[in-house]
Known about the structure:
The protein has helices at about 1-10, 30, 65, 70-75, 125-135; strands spanning about 35-45, 50-60, 80, 90-100, 110-115, 115-120, 140-145, 150-154. It is an alpha+beta fold. Keywords: Signal.
Amino acid sequence: xxxxxxxxxxxxxxxxxSGAAGATDYPDWAIRKEKSAAALVxxxxxxxxxxxxxxxxxxxxxxxLAGQICSKLSARDMKSARDATGTTRFFADTVLVxxxxxxxxxxxxxxxxxxxxxxxSRLPACRTGLRKxxxxxxxxxxxxxxxxxxxxxx
Length: 154
C-alpha cells in the first residue's frame, strides 16, 4: 500500500519506452517487403537507463519483425526514471512497441494499449519475484483499433 500511495502523490519522470525504437532500427529486409509488426512487452529499465529485461507478451503482424523488437530496445539507452526528489530509480512498464511501415495498414489492431507503469526504489531480490511482479502487470491488456475496443485477458 505505501508504494501505491507514493505513486499517486509523487510527481516523477518515466521514460517513453514505446518510442525508443527509431527509424534507424527498422531492418532493410522489412522495408523491402513492407512488413509491419508490434509487440506488447514487459520492460525493466535500471537507474542508469539500461534495459535489463524485455519480455514479449503478445505480438502482432510479421512474426520475424516482432521477434526483433526486444533486441532493438535492449540495445538502446533510455532516460533514467526519476522520483519527485530527482533520484534515479528502477522502472518497469508494459508497453506496446510498434514497427509500422507507414505505407501499409497491415497492423491496425495495435493502435494503443493501457499503460501500466511502476517506479521502484529497488528490484525484488530474485528473478522469481520480478517475474511475479511483471505477471501482475500483464494480466489485462486493452487494445484499440478502428473497431470497438477489445479487452483481452490472459
